[in-house]
Amino acid sequence: MTTVVTHAPEDTESAGAGFAAVLKPGDVVALTGPLGSGKTSFVSGACAALGATGHFGSPTFTFINEYPAGTMTVVHADMYRISSRAEMAEIGLLEYFRPPYVCFIEWAERILDLLPSGHYLICFEHCGGATERRITIRQPGESRR
Q1: pTM metric for this prediction
Q2: What is the mean pLDDT of the chain?
């Protein structure tokens, strides 16, 4: 388990960029935490580091955004508006849990039991000042306690 404290959105993007170095096609990254805790900033940094281009906004209303990045495709999914397992299946999220995709899922706490056992779990928390965040990264297989 790794914990990082960031003090500005740019720091959170940098943390995402640093994390991206360990990712490979087929990886699934579950992001949990309250509204405004830095999930989208973290994914933006990771997308840029993986070589994707474009605007990396939250896919709250589109559910899934895809960003080509060389030999892989970065997928950014948002489960905030998903209210049932049937809806999750309907949008086709499970299709992204394999190469050539690297899949980031915001609001993953809604579907943790449906994720592959080898996923990363990243928890975001507000702490300290208005822009300070605590980011806890758990590697695949690490205890969730």
Answers
A1: 0.92
A2: 90
